[in-house]
Design goal:
single chain; 560 residues; alpha/beta; TIM Barrel; 6-stranded parallel β-sheet; 18 helices
Length: 560
Amino acid sequence: MDYDLLIKNGRVVDGSGLPSFVADVGIRDGKIVDVGRLNGTAKRTIDASGFVVSPGFIDHHTHMDGQILWDPFGTCEPQHGVTSIIMGNCGLALAPVKNGDEDAIVKSFVRVEAIPRVALEKGVPWGWKSYGEYLNKLEGNIGINVGGIVGHIAVRQFVMGEESTQRKATDSEVQKMRGAVGEAMRAGSFGLSTNRNERHMREDGLPVPSRLADDHELFALCEVVSQSNAGVIQMNMGRHCVEQIPQYDELARRVRRPIVWQSVQYKESEPELWQNMLSGIAKTFAEGYQAYGLTHTVPLMRHFSMKDAQIFDEFPVWKNLMFRPEPARKQAFADPATRQKMRDDMAEPRSVSYHRNWGRVFVEKAAKTENQKYVGKSVAEVAAARNQDSLDAFLDLSLEENLETMFETTNRGFNPEAMSTIMKSPYVVIGTSDAGAHVQFGADFGYCTTLLGMWVRDRQMIALEHAIHKLTFHVASIWGIEGRGLLRPGYHADVTIFDPKTIKACAPEWAEDYPAATKRFIQRSEGVHYTIVNGKVVFEDGKMRGEMAGDVLRSGAYQA
């Protein structure tokens, strides 16, 4: 048989979770046609001896809604073996949208997902109204496969305008929202995302619209997804997620669709929280309903300065200060009375994700020569060197440098045994990359390469076949992404070829590749040699090939 592409002698890990085997993979017309010992001719042959050949990875939690319009490869996704992404998470989407409401949508993306306003203003070529029109805009213009979830924030804004940030919806408005969700499902949306996170505000300080929705509205919209018999309900519920497990149970019973909700992580401040969350999830599954948790593969690193420090949004005093113009903010930071309010606010005994530990906040970059001695030291160490309280040292250093001092921290502790248990759970989906968001605070494209490098190879805490399954067919099965996630004849030829001995995620680095030369963090990889989308090589040995090979992914509810 003749092939367009023939991959020879690789260790095939097919995504099913079954043991790997040495085989060849034959590809023609964008599909896998043969797996086994193949002797046909091919337009191109890749010798994969010593490499793993797996399905392309599926990044289900991105905020690429804007970026994919100016960066059709979703950089740096292919560098980490990702061939398909899902956007529209956490209630945020760029459609549906009425003419004149575009800036209202931007306000949520700018604040919640920390996407620079100038990038969205310069890079998003508005012109659609419906969700289907937005997806159609992508057809033929993408280098990876892209699917989306319609966002509750956009739907509410579309129906209610600015009143969506101020009040409950009327029954008539709920019906109109149901119509908008139904249109999106028929256009191929992979479900509905919503956001009740109490920290999530728009750029103007108003709550994101979905936070004003009551249970009646939320359940009514989710029922449209249920009636479509396709897709998932993706939820961002904030810090009170454990208390809301009964609500997820009720929703799961009513809609009978997979619910993908809160991140399950080990936290030093609440070391038993992850176990309580897994227990609650397992109970729901034992009763026959699907409510999946999410997890990551590494502690989430965040980089920030006091010019823009969303990491403190859980603390009302801090958050209100960050919404002030910079001159007023500086004046407040210098005021002893304000500092005491900030101190008291952070000491308030309540459940928060931020660790409140100055020993875990490090000076990453100092603007002044005389402060270079603090780089790499924790704020607690800086305070000791300056004979100051930690908060005073933190704010004084920031003020000395015109708020340009860069800090880094992580909100998650590192407990390998806990993280291994979480990742291996069948009730937990791996991957919260947030790709396309928080671009000036960090980059987490590398969760797949970290899983395969750190957890499979170095720590040997999860089997290679299990890890690949979790990155591919596990995701495709839950979201209903047909024909993807397995290396089987008839499936789309989305393939990743990597060296298991060297694969890893590199440290984030700055780039100026957003619209208007806006800076952001990117993250490269090592050990990923080929990323193949629909049978075409889009990434090869560190370089993008430029092939516009991607498909717009549409759910089973799609009506052409």
